[in-house]
């Protein structure tokens, strides 16, 4: 009888934990790094769409600390950051055809690279490696006017150009994206 009760208790505990885990997976907005998205639309209606998770600073040193310089970073948290373009674009000075990609970055104190990876559908870490890189391009690095608590990817649209911006802590890394005609 004792073995049956112990087994039943263990089974019910496991079921409760599994159900709790499934509930957290279903409601991603309850995560410490909730999902976020941004989009830019070119004048002809073609779009760039980015889905990412937005970690919080919470008093931590981010760049050069939590996110080490000189190491590939997943540009967010949780699932990998997706980059979907339905038109051929120039990301910085690099051609990127319409398609689905994953974004990573290589941050340094004064320079960043944006990595557009061909591998999609993976968790944000580990980085799949250079053999999956579609391209890498330089990003402009500047300081934000005020500290940024939530990691944010956004677009600044100016005419036919969408400037991708990644803001967190006191850093902004950006790169221009234009539609290829």
Strand order of the largest sheet: 1-2-3-6-7-8-9-4-5
Task: Give the averaged pLDDT, no decimals.
Answer: 88
Give me the strand/helix succession. HEEEEEEEEE
Based on Cα principal axes, name the global outline: globular
* Beta-strand share of residues: over 45%
What count of structural domains?
2
The termini sit apart by 75 Å
Q: Regions with pLDDT < 50 over 5+ consecutive residues?
A: 6-12, 14-24
- Helix content class: 10-25%
Kindly name the structural category.
Answer: mainly beta
Number of strands: 9
Characteristics of this structure?
181 residues, mainly beta, nine-stranded antiparallel β-sheet, 9 strands
Please describe what this structure looks like.
This protein is mainly beta. The chain has 2 domains: 1-30; 31-179, no CATH class. 14% of the residues lie in helices and 47% in strands. The protein has 1 helix and 9 strands. A 9-stranded antiparallel β-sheet has the order 1-2-3-6-7-8-9-4-5, with no helix packed on it. The protein is globular, with a radius of gyration of 20 Å.
Summarize the structure.
Helix content is 14%, strand content 47%. The protein is built from one helix and nine strands; from the N terminus they run αβββββββββ. β6 and β7 form a beta hairpin.
Fold topology:
Elements: H1 2-26, E1 35-41, E2 47-53, E3 81-85, E4 89-91, E5 94-96, E6 99-107, E7 112-117, E8 133-158, E9 161-179
Antiparallel strand pairs: 1-2, 2-3, 3-6, 4-5, 4-9, 6-7, 7-8, 8-9
């Amino acid at each position: 009888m004792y073995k049956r009760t112990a087994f039943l208790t263990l089974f019910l505990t496991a079921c409760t934990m599994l159900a709790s885990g499934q509930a957290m997976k279903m409601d991603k907005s309850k995560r410490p790094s909730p999902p976020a998205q941004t989009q830019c639309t070119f004048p002809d209606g073609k779009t760039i769409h980015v889905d990412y998770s937005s970690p919080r600073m919470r008093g931590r040193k981010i760049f050069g600390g939590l996110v080490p310089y000189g190491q590939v970073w997943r540009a967010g948290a949780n699932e990998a950051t997706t980059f979907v373009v339905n038109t051929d674009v120039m990301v910085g000075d690099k051609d990127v055809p319409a398609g689905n990609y994953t974004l990573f970055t290589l941050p340094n104190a004064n320079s960043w690279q944006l990595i557009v990876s061909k591998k999609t559908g993976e968790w944000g870490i580990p980085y799949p490696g250079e053999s999956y890189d579609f391209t890498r391009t330089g990003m402009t690095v500047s300081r934000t006017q005020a500290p940024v608590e939530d990691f944010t990817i956004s677009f600044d649209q100016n005419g036919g150009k969408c400037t991708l911006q990644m803001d967190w802590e006191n850093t902004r890394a950006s790169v221009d994206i234009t539609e290829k005609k």
